[in-house]
Write a structure and sequence with these properties.
about 475 residues, alpha+beta, Outer membrane efflux proteins (OEP), two-stranded antiparallel sheet, 10 helices, 8 strands, elongated
């Protein structure tokens, strides 16, 4: 009983700890890299190329096959040992070993291994690209949660100010200092803020669920992230010339590496297709033996009467009889030799070379070579296009980051001016120099400026991370 209670307490403790856990961005990225389904599928593709490589290496190993058979024959059959026809029932068994080895096949075996290695490398590039994409998706979803939480904090803090203003205005209205319209105006503002808080809370919840789904975490209710604000750091990326970022991207980004490996694969396929023009030379060796329990007939000289004498003719001139002598054979039934003895007595081997020279095959090889040549040209164009697309994407990301920086700086300037305007309006409202409507409008502008600053901040952070990925920074080493 004590053990059961201890286990229950431990389970409750673990549940509470997991419920209280808040995920950092690094933890989210690392968890996604370890558990994302698309990444797991890409890892399976890499494992499949391992199997292809093993198969290609196996072409250099001789083929070996073993065979055996057992049968029972009834009626007129040929004895597999004596090759004589006989009517009986007998058991027979055969065994064989075949060995084959390709001596030359136009170097296709060698190029199959080379192609398998290239295919494995291309799969690794695709896996790395998938990890980069997933890391970026996770970072974007994480920053979206932070943005929604920051906006919720703005809405809640400003609503606290509104509630304080409602209480103060109520006292002034009761004292007859302010008209009732000011109280109604602020109460209307409070209603709009409460609706905005509810909508922002829902946005936080939805963004958390989206991030949890991306991480394949099912416990939506307890999933949460660290609420610490992320500051804009490592702005040196925008100080680099865009050409430097493009050159780094061409060296490090997997889009170009994948396109380059596709060209190498196409060139290797062309070599393979040309290899079919060459003769194929192979060697073979086989060993076989047999056994049967069938009886056979044996003829031997009769020891008691080894010869028979009979007249075979008469000499016409003398009338003398001509006597002939012939061996006297006795037929006897002989049983089957022992199993082991027959294996040695009835075995045989065969070995030799096979040469296959292609002469005419309906232009199959020629058409395959032509298609391979076309595919090489196609992949080269795709490589060129991949480089152009990467250059365009880097330029776009660079311009977007610069634009995001300007928007962030403008938002910072706007928040400073709007905060001063709001404080000035608040002071005037507190002393009765402005009405509730003008004060609410000033407060609304200030709230919107704070929300816009949050949006510009996280948008700028995300676009900086995109540039860092293009520059070759590892996804798990991105700093926030």
């Amino acid at each position: 009983m004590k053990k059961i209670v201890s286990v229950l307490i431990l389970l409750v403790t673990i549940t509470q700890v997991s419920a209280q856990k808040k995920w950092t961005l690094v933890e989210c990225v690392q968890y996604a890299l370890e558990n994302n389904i698309s990444i797991k599928q890409s890892e399976l593709d890499v494992e499949a190329t391992e199997a292809d490589k093993l198969s290609a290496i196996g072409n250099f190993i001789p083929s070996l096959s073993l065979g055996a058979g057992v049968s029972e024959n009834t009626g007129l059959s040929f004895n597999p040992v004596t090759n004589n026809a006989q009517t009986t029932t007998f058991l027979s068994a055969t065994g064989r070993i075949n060995v084959g080895y390709t001596l030359f096949d136009g170097l296709r075996n060698l190029r199959e291994v080379q192609r398998a290695e290239l295919s494995q490398l291309a799969s690794l590039y695709r896996l790395d690209k998938m990890k980069d994409d997933i890391s970026l998706f996770v970072a974007n979803s994480y920053l979206q949660v932070l943005l929604n939480k920051a906006n919720l904090e703005v809405a809640q803090s400003q609503n606290e100010v509104t509630l304080a203003q409602i209480e103060r205005t109520q006292n002034l209205v009761d004292a007859g200092t302010l008209p009732r319209g000011d109280l109604l105006e602020i109460q209307a503002t409070n209603s709009l803020e409460l609706r905005n808080i509810a909508q922002t809370q829902n946005a936080v919840r939805v963004s958390l669920i989206s991030l949890a789904q991306l991480l394949l975490i099912k416990d939506y209710e307890n999933f949460d992230i660290v609420d610490e604000g992320y500051e804009v750091i490592n702005q040196e990326m925008l100080l680099k010339p865009v050409d430097e970022i493009i050159n780094a991207a061409e060296e490090n980004r997997n889009e170009v590496k994948i396109a380059e490996s596709n060209v190498e694969l196409a060139e290797k396929d062309l070599q393979l297709s040309k290899g079919a023009y060459y003769p194929t030379l192979s060697a073979f060796f086989s060993y076989d033996t047999r056994y049967t329990d069938a009886t056979s007939f044996s003829q031997e000289l009769d020891p008691d009467n080894p010869f028979t004498i009979q007249d075979i003719g008469t000499v016409e001139a003398t009338g003398q009889n001509v006597i002939g002598q012939s061996p006297n054979f006795v037929t006897s039934v002989v049983g089957a030799d022992p199993f082991i003895d027959q294996l040695y007595q009835n075995d045989g081997i065969a070995y030799g070379l096979n040469l296959n020279i292609p002469v005419l095959n309906g232009f199959v090889v020629r058409s395959n070579v032509k298609r391979s040549q076309i595919n090489v040209e196609r992949t080269r164009y795709q490589l060129e296009q991949a480089k152009l697309d990467l250059e365009s994407n880097v330029y776009q990301a660079y311009v977007d980051a610069q634009g995001a920086l300007k928007a962030f700086e403008a938002a910072q300037a706007a928040i400073e001016s709007q905060e001063l305007a709001y404080e000035y309006a608040k002071e005037r409202y507190d002393v009765g120099l402005t009405n509730a409507f003008d004060f609410s409008q000033s407060k609304l502008r200030y709230d919107n400026a704070r929300i816009e600053l949050n949006r510009a901040k996280y948008d700028y952070i995300f676009k900086l991370k995109v540039l860092e990925l293009y520059f070759g920074v590892n996804p798990t080493e991105l700093k926030f």
